[in-house]
Design goal:
Structural class: alpha+beta
Oligomer: single chain
Strand content: 25-35%
Shape: elongated
Number of strands: 28
Largest sheet: 8 strands, mixed
Distance between the termini: 257 Å
C-alpha cells in the first residue's frame, strides 16, 4: 500500500493512520562544563584585585638621596609612626651619577604626604647628640620615614633628608633663632634646659652670610614654650662651669649629658619680669655662659687704639681692658708700626670698649651716646685729668698682661686724637717699666761716682786713724788711767762720808732734830699770838709786871 504522496507505509499500519509519519524533536539547551567554572572564578578574583589595587593606589613620588644604602625595591617600606603607607618600587642613578632616585608608591590613605612641604628620610641606626636612634632597623632593615606637610600644593619630586628631623611638623611648640659667634659643641638634637628640665632641642644651624657668626634654630616644646619671653636670656650650658671667688670654689653644670654633648639653657634675669611670650621664630642672642647672659646689655662697642713703645710679650688678643676692676672690653688686634719721624717702632693695640659697663647714668642725666660730640667732650675732660692706658701683669706665673685704664693725676701731657677712627687714647709706662727705668738711672749715676778716688782717700784716712790710735795708746791712755784712779778715790771718800754710821751723818741727824723742835716752838708761839695778840704789849697772862 502506498500513501497518496507515493510513499509506502509500513505494513500493519493501515489501521493506525499517521502512525508512520516522522516525528520532530526539539533540541536541548547547551550547558557549560564544570571544568570552566574554576578559571572563571579565578579571572573574576583577579579583576577584583586589579580594581581594588587601582582603587587603593596612591600617588607615586620620586625621592632623591645621596645613597641608596639599606634600600631594596619591593621590600623597603615607607612608614609614618610605624604604620606602612607605601613601599619602594624602583631605585636608579641620576643622569649625572651624583645621587640616586628612589621611586615610592604610596597608599590611597597617604595622599596628604604628597604635599609640597612633606619630608622623607632613611631610618637606620644612628648615634647623635640626642642619643641612639633606629636600633629597631638592625633586625627589620632600613625604611623610609615620612612627615606629612601642611601645604595645599602637591609635588611628586622631593629631596630626601640625610638626617632625621629633630621635630616633626605636628609637634606643638615654638621655633626660635639664636645668634652666636660660633657653634661651640652644639649639634642637631642637642638638649635645651629650663631650670635644669629638658624642654626642647636644637633643630638646625647655619653660617651667617657675612661669615661672622652662626644662627642656631631651636625648638621648645609645649607647654614649656610659655616661659620664653621677650626678656629671656640664652647661653651655652656645655661642659662644667668652674668658679673661684670670695665665697669659695664652685662647680656648676646643667646635667651629665651637657658635660659630654653640650647643651643650651634659657631663663629671665633674676628679679626681672619675663615679658610677653616670644612669638614664633623670634631671634635672641646666645651668650657664652650664664654670667654673660645675665649682664645688662652692653650696647654698641667703641673702637679704640693705644700706642705702646714697650714690649707686648704676654699680651694676647682677647685680653681684658680693665678700669679699676671693671672689665670695659677686650683686645681685638695687636700690631707693629715704624715711625719715620722718631725712627722708632710703636705697638698699636686695638680694642673694643663698652662705655655702658662703666657709666650707666651720669649726674643729672643719661650717659652720653658712644661716638657723639658729648661723648668726645666727656672723654676729653678725662684725658686732661690724666686718663691713660697702662700695661699691667695679670698673672705672675704665666706672664700674661692686660690693659688697665686709670686716671693718673701726675701724668705728663700726651698727644691723642678723639676724631680718628678708631679713637686714639694716650698711654703711660707701667710700674715695672718705671722701676726698671729708675734702676737704670740709679745704675747710670752710680757709674759716675769716682769709687777709685774715694777708695784712695779712705785708705789715707785709715792710715791717719791708725797713727792717732797709736798716740792715744802711748800718751793719752796712761794719763787717763791716773785721772780715773784719782776720781775713784774721791768717790770712795764721798761714800764713806755718806754712810749712816759716819760722824757727819750723826751730826746732821742731831741738827735736824734740834731744827724740828725749834719749828715746833715757833708754831706754838704763832698759835698763841694769833689768840692773844695783846700779849705783845702786856705780856703773857699770869706773868707779873
Amino acid at each position: 500500500m502506498t500513501s497518496p504522496k507515493g510513499t509506502r507505509t509500513p505494513p500493519g499500519d493501515d489501521h493506525f493512520p499517521g502512525v508512520g509519519e516522522p516525528q520532530i524533536v526539539q533540541p536541548r539547551r547547551w550547558l557549560p562544563s564544570l571544568v570552566w567554572i574554576v578559571p572563571l572564578i579565578a579571572a573574576l578574583i583577579g579583576v577584583a584585585l586589579v580594581v581594588k589595587s587601582v582603587a587603593m593606589r596612591g600617588p607615586t613620588l620620586t625621592l632623591t638621596f645621596l645613597s641608596a644604602e639599606g634600600l631594596e625595591p619591593g621590600k623597603t617600606k615607607v612608614k609614618y609612626k610605624d604604620v606602612d603607607i607605601g613601599s619602594v618600587r624602583a631605585i636608579k642613578l641620576s643622569p649625572n651619577l651624583s645621587h640616586v632616585l628612589v621611586t615610592v608608591e604610596l597608599t590611597k590613605d597617604a595622599e596628604n604626604f604628597a604635599s609640597k612641604d612633606s619630608r622623607f628620610w632613611v631610618v637606620r641606626p644612628r648615634v647623635g647628640a640626642g642619643g641612639v636612634s633606629g636600633l629597631g632597623t638592625l633586625l627589620s632593615g632600613a625604611y623610609i620615614g615620612a612627615d606629612a606637610g601642611r601645604s595645599h600644593e602637591t609635588a611628586s619630586d622631593f629631596t630626601g633628608l640625610e638626617t632625621p628631623p629633630a621635630v616633626t611638623i605636628d609637634e606643638k611648640g615654638h621655633h626660635y633663632s639664636l645668634h652666636s659667634k660660633d657653634l661651640g659643641s652644639l649639634d642637631i638634637g642637642t638638649p635645651i634646659f629650663y631650670r635644669r628640665i629638658q624642654v626642647g632641642q636644637v633643630t638646625g644651624y647655619s653660617l651667617d652670610k657675612d661669615g661672622m657668626g652662626v644662627t642656631v634654630q631651636v625648638f621648645v616644646s609645649a607647654p614649656y614654650d610659655q616661659y620664653v619671653g621677650t626678656n629671656t636670656r640664652w647661653w651655652h650650658a656645655s661642659g662644667v662651669d668652674v668658679k673661684l671667688d670670695a665665697s669659695g670654689f664652685k662647680v656648676n653644670t646643667q646635667s651629665l649629658a651637657t658635660v659630654v654633648a653640650g647643651g643650651l639653657a634659657f631663663q629671665q634675669p633674676s628679679g626681672s619680669p619675663m615679658g610677653s611670650q616670644a612669638p614664633d621664630n623670634a631671634t635672641f642672642a646666645l651668650a657664652d655662659d650664664e654670667g654673660d647672659a645675665m649682664k645688662e646689655p652692653d650696647g654698641a662697642p667703641s673702637r679704640v687704639v693705644m700706642y705702646f713703645n714697650q714690649s707686648l710679650r704676654g699680651l694676647a688678643v682677647g685680653a681684658t681692658v680693665d678700669f679699676r676692676g671693671i672689665a670695659l672690653g677686650q683686645v681685638t688686634d695687636i700690631g707693629i708700626e715704624y715711625d719715620l719721624k722718631q725712627r722708632n717702632f710703636t705697638m698699636p693695640v686695638t680694642m673694643d670698649l663698652y662705655p655702658l659697663r662703666l657709666v650707666r647714668k651720669n649726674r643729672g642725666g643719661a650717659a652720653p651716646t658712644p661716638g657723639s660730640p658729648q661723648d668726645h667732650e666727656f672723654i676729653k675732660r678725662l684725658v686732661e685729668r690724666g686718663l691713660r692706658g697702662q700695661l699691667r701683669n695679670g698673672n705672675l706665673l704665666t706672664g700674661q698682661l692686660y690693659i688697665a685704664l686709670d686716671v693718673f693725676p701726675n701724668a705728663p701731657p700726651a698727644k691723642y686724637n678723639l676724631d680718628s677712627n678708631p679713637m686714639e687714647l694716650p698711654t703711660v709706662q707701667n710700674s715695672l717699666e718705671e722701676l726698671q727705668q729708675q734702676v737704670a738711672d740709679i745704675t747710670k749715676k752710680l757709674n759716675q761716682v769716682p769709687f777709685d778716688k774715694i777708695g784712695n782717700n779712705l785708705n789715707e784716712s785709715l792710715k791717719s786713724a791708725n797713727e792717732l790710735f797709736g798716740k792715744v795708746n802711748d800718751e793719752i791712755l796712761p794719763q787717763l788711767h791716773g785721772t780715773l784712779e784719782e776720781t775713784q778715790k774721791t768717790f770712795h771718800a764721798a761714800q764713806a762720808t755718806l754712810q749712816q754710821d759716819s760722824p757727819l751723818q750723826s751730826d746732821v741727824h742731831q741738827a735736824m732734830q734740834e731744827l724740828t723742835r725749834t719749828l715746833q716752838s715757833l708754831n706754838s708761839l704763832t698759835d698763841y699770838l694769833e689768840r692773844h695778840p695783846e700779849s705783845l704789849l702786856r705780856g703773857k697772862s699770869g706773868d707779873k709786871p
